[in-house]
Amino acid sequence: MPELPEVEQVRRTLAPHLLGRRVAAVSIYRPDFILAAPADRTPHALLEGDTITELRRLGKSLALLGSSGRVVGLHLGMTGQFLVRPGPASPAALSSTTHIHIAWHLTSPTTPPTTIAFRDPRRFGEVRPLPSLIHLDALWAPLGPDALTITPNELAPRLKPGKRAIKAALLDQHILAGVGNIYADEALFAARISPRKHAGRLTAADIARLCDHLRAILSRAISAGGSTLRDFVDADGTQGSYRQHHQVYGRANQPCPNCQTTLRSALIAQRTTVWCPRCQSTTHTPSPKSPAAVKRSRRVAGG
Ligand SMILES: [Zn+2]
User: Fold this and answer.
1) What is the distance in A from the centroid of ligand 1 to the CA of 13?
2) Distance between CA 256 and CA 273 in Å, rounded?
3) What is the pLDDT of residues 120-138, one digit of tens each?
């Protein structure tokens, strides 16, 4: 499932193809894929006639903003992809590609026509027409602050009542938006915090270290184009390379890159969680380690 870095990578690669362009037409191949009453599953509701003014992201969610004030909320789900096709791709040509549900045909006075198609084989993705930005704000209101810019002051009060494991809390999009299984495990390892520790028991120092590492790891993953698991490909059709930098995710029973102890795995919040029982001991109080220091030790370790 794409996490924040993959969705941000999609946003960055897709935006140049969208911004300032007019939606000349919208082809709807699977009306039932659109999250709206049947009467609202129209090209008009999906910004036909509008100029695209912004492609916004919060956590793993995206939204397309139109010049009329209308909005389309988007979510990649597990296998959602945007395909960019230069030229006025004919509806017939596109619909022959499997699992394409919607296509936006874009024009601009200065650039050649482009078609952006949303493809989603497993159909957990979302395309949701919204009448205004107020509706987008309401849709996104339950989400926590974006993990890419999270601060200890924002995170601490959200963890406080928690008896849940910190791993489970990090996966909860109402606490923090954008983190999934990969980056939760990676950030907890970097911050030397056991994934099983109660969220409410984290000290102020733990939370500060966790925020530092979350932001640093997510930023590095965005620079590397994300992690690319299975079906995820960004809008340019290129694959991310961050998976080469995973320290614990997907490495159960392999040696810890820091201390060589065998990495453990267990189900936490129904997700396979991997951690080092020594570096991330529940009783261990780690010395504060900056992301830069971790990066240095990683280089020395050859990883
Ligand atoms: Zn270790």
Assistant:
1) 36
2) 14
3) 988 899 999 999 999 999 9
